[in-house]
């Protein structure tokens, strides 16, 4: 049994609290490692050391900080396969998907290589007579990143790269279910030249998080996870005077118009609904076909595609479509929601509850599940299932479909499949959701744009990565300067004596 560590002051440090969490291999159901859970004292010591280290890091010029990101990016690339394996081992996603997880994090690191350009201030010459104004962006100090289980590389990199490039120190508290990748990234950052103490990876549970939230040293909290925890963290952090951006859960709808290419729409629904076992905050979990003919055409195409899906452990090869869900509790919850959908009157077209895989009987697998005739009152519609379950809500008109999306409490991502530019344009303009795909099911913006949902999918201001991240991790100071005239005032007719 491996005993994992924290990463403090540039080295692996054993936990001293005596409390551990089990880290599972979700494909086999076995515990593969013990993760130390930090005590209040351990967390506070890590924060204090980060505050010391931050002073020198903030004084390091921005270009030198960006060079650490350049070397880090190269090292992440070199270690791509190792990182992906660590992700798949703890999360269960396939290796190609795990490489994508690393890649989408790396792309944010790449933007941070040009970070100094984002950190520049503004200048107005002669804002008044002889008066100049300039602003500068300064780091906040020590900030925290609290991340979810489902993207063990991408989301820690979304947090660390802009925060560190901006001159902050960071306490990263990764998910206790998928912690190894963060520890590996910390090793690579050290190798890239990051001074010790500037990134502390402190593992833990609610106690560790609450210690962060109540710390007077921590200036900002970047959180990603489920909506109730996002709202809790946002409230407690803000109440303690911290800057907070807390990204929450989702229920992403995809509209399919009668003029859409049905084969492409079905392919998109399969990938976006079942990829990573539906454990993506940008997964499509609700298909909204407009018109019964559209719905029937889709069902006809989805069923054979679902039958062909290969579910299995990541070790079974790159042709596996998706793996297990994260824990036995998640498995039980997803199965319970499928039961409820059946009881509440939805049509169960494909049922993944009894999925079994020889040799992996104790793994946390759910087969692909499809419901038709789902209504907004049903629990399978209201809850974020976070599993390989796709619900179809039939809609009579485009306006009804749009209203369904607008009325949903979440607003992370949404998509429309159509051949009509006018409808697509109207949808993108009116929908109250943060990220919109047009004939594109998972519209995660590229790293030089910015990522964030609306409504209950995000609390606080400013998005993740892109220019917003640099604004979040810095504060602006504005200077108004006037210099009174010296020697230039009046003439001097004698040789000045330089005494
Ligand atoms: P989670 O909310 O259970 O955990 C997220 C983090 O919060 C973890 O580090 C965990 O240790 C900590 N935490 C959990 N319970 C806590 C508590 N009571 N008090 C303080 N801290 C606590 O989320 P998860 O299950 O790891 O991740 C899945 C969720 O994340 C889904 O809802 C998914 O939609 C969401 N998500 C959102 C985005 C986004 O950008 N909006 C991205 C990825 C995942």
From TrEMBL:
<feature type="domain" description="Aldehyde dehydrogenase">
    <location>
        <begin position="13"/>
        <end position="479"/>
    </location>
</feature>
<dbReference type="InterPro" id="IPR015590">
    <property type="entry name" value="Aldehyde_DH_dom"/>
</dbReference>
<dbReference type="InterPro" id="IPR016161">
    <property type="entry name" value="Ald_DH/histidinol_DH"/>
</dbReference>
<dbReference type="InterPro" id="IPR016162">
    <property type="entry name" value="Ald_DH_N"/>
</dbReference>
<dbReference type="InterPro" id="IPR010061">
    <property type="entry name" value="MeMal-semiAld_DH"/>
</dbReference>
<dbReference type="GO" id="GO:0016491">
    <property type="term" value="F:oxidoreductase activity"/>
</dbReference>
<keyword id="KW-0520">NAD</keyword>
<dbReference type="InterPro" id="IPR016160">
    <property type="entry name" value="Ald_DH_CS_CYS"/>
</dbReference>
<dbReference type="InterPro" id="IPR016163">
    <property type="entry name" value="Ald_DH_C"/>
</dbReference>
<dbReference type="Pfam" id="PF00171">
    <property type="entry name" value="Aldedh"/>
</dbReference>
<protein>
    <recommendedName>
        <fullName>methylmalonate-semialdehyde dehydrogenase (CoA acylating)</fullName>
        <ecNumber>1.2.1.27</ecNumber>
    </recommendedName>
</protein>
<keyword id="KW-0560">Oxidoreductase</keyword>
